[in-house]
Protein: Transporter
Organism: Pseudidiomarina maritima
Amino acid sequence: MHESPSIANRWSSRLLFILASTAAAVGLGNIWKFPYITGENGGGAFVLVYLLCIAGIGLPVMIAEIVIGRRGRHSPGYAALKVAQESGRSKFWQITGWLGMATGFLVLSFYAVIAGWALAYVVEAASGSFTGASVAQISDIFGSLVSSSARLTVWHAAIIVGVVLVVGNGIKDGLERAVSWMLPAMVILLIGLAGYAAYIGDFGAAIEFMFAPDFSELSINGVMLALGHAFFSLGLASGVVIMYGAYLSKSTSIIQTSLWVALADTFVALLAGLAIFPIVFGSQLTPEAGPGLIFQTLPVAFSQMPGGAALGTVFFIMLVIAAFTSAIAMIESAVAFLEERFNLGRWTATMAAGFTLWLLGQVTIYSFSGADWTQISWQVGDKELKSWFDVIDYTTSNVLLPLGGLLLAVFAGWVMKSTYSQDELGTQPLVFKIWHFIVRYLAPIAIILIFLQLIGIIRF
């Protein structure tokens, strides 16, 4: 193992760490997934439980990841190895870091394809394809995009090239420079969209739906989903937070910065709901539209409203930025690993990771287009996996992310010496004891429940 040049780097300031971490967390999970799972699970009650889960479980685990990263000062696998050995524990525990890095890379293999959809939709919206289009026509636009492996390959490649160009320039000239304007631009666009949506849509109905809890609409499964989404919307268990923690200055307060990141991430998720639901309700559409809410339901609303082409264009530009900032974060740990393990230069490591990612993305692309070699029929519990994309999606979401989260909580709570974590946190003894109790006991129990529910072993 060599120490990569990037590991010696540090974030230029606490603000840039907060911007980078928030940009990493804010992505398709906040703007694509959060609104539709809120719609499917009754609105306000789900939002309230989600916020409680962010505060009670997500934030403590995020703090744990940053502690491991800053203490280890390496890419995730080597950081976990260093901390485990320093704590007098088995080398086995390095699996905590390797699993997170591998999971993040697998997620990115299809995440970058979905980002390509958003990029394609910028062009569709700007060219007026949605203007006056019927529901059937908009459905055809989406269907023709995802069924064309050639088109998807082009849009996916555009995302990968952009990611390589940013990450190849390193921490200061690449990641910091990108997030310092991309995240503020995305938030400004989202605020503008929310304001316009409130003006032309049904803002009152959206506010009532999101913030007036009706617990009769929330099932125990909905509570588990809120817990799972709160945990994963912060980008946990994907190698990102450990990697970004490795670049964090020793003088920066981990608890304070983590709190700011969690608040900013949650603010963007709620803002996305306020940008989307007024349009949905104002257009007499249903908030329970599921995964198609962004790519099929919203374009129907854009087709009917004044200035819909401009609004749709701005919305999908914002979605591309959100997806892109997450993508550059998810590839960073793989690049740092290649630098460390093989002593590669920054650009060589980035291009190698980018090419591998592009190859993996073909599995998702050809799964969507229905290529024979990607089609399977596997029954896992009550869920049928019909393509290799389904396998990757199911395995990462339902197995690897929860397992990685469990390992992280156990690692921080039981494996890492408490004197080391206390030294990294540098906080009041009572605050440390509360955090340590959560990552030792509450977080593992919560994650085990999520895992068992996701794979269908327990049902509520």
In short: The beta strands are 375-380, 383-387.
